[in-house]
Amino acid sequence: MVLLVILVVSSSYSQYPIIKKIGNDTLVLMTLKQGDDINKSYIKNQKNVDSLNDLVISKNALFDSLKLELSKTDRKKEEYKVRYEERLNMPTKVKYQYHDDGWDFTEKIILIGIIVIQFFTIKR
C-alpha cells in the first residue's frame, strides 16, 4: 500500500508540460501528443484568421465600390441641380424687337381661321 502511494505521488510530479528556467531563457518540456494538439489548434486558428482576412478584403472591396457609386451619384445630383438652377434663371419668353405679344396672338387667330375655312370648303 505504501508503495502504491509513493508511485501515485511520484507520477503526479512527472506531469507535462514542465517549465524550467535556465538563466534568462525558459525551457518548456511537453509530450509529443501535447505538441501535436498545439500544432493542430495553431493550424485551425490560422485557417480561421485567413478566412476572416479574406472576408475583410471582400467587404472592403464592396465598401469601396459602394463609395465610388455614391460619389458618382453625388456628381450626377450636382449636375442636375446646376441644370435645374440654370433653367430657373432662364427667361420664359424671348422678346423680339419687332414682335409683340399681340401680333403673335393675331397670327394664331388668322391661322385657326384659315384651317376652319379649309375644313368647311372640302368637297364631299
Question: Helix tally?
Answer: 3
Total strand count, please?
A: 2
Shape: rod-shaped
Content of β-strand: 5-15%
Low-confidence stretches: none
Topology as a string of helices (H) and strands (E) = HEEHH
- The chain-level structural class is mainly alpha
Distance between the first and last residues' Cα: 138 Å
Largest sheet: 2 strands, antiparallel
Sheet with most strands: strand arrangement: 1-2
Structural overview:
The protein is mainly α. The chain is built from 3 helices and 2 strands. β1 and β2 (25-29) form a beta hairpin. The chain is rod-shaped, with a radius of gyration of 46 Å.
Keyword list:
124 residues; mainly alpha; two-stranded antiparallel sheet
Short characterization:
The chain is 73% helix and 8% strand.
What is this structure's SSE topology?
Blueprint: H1 2-13, E1 18-22, E2 25-29, H2 32-89, H3 101-120
Antiparallel strand pairs: 1-2
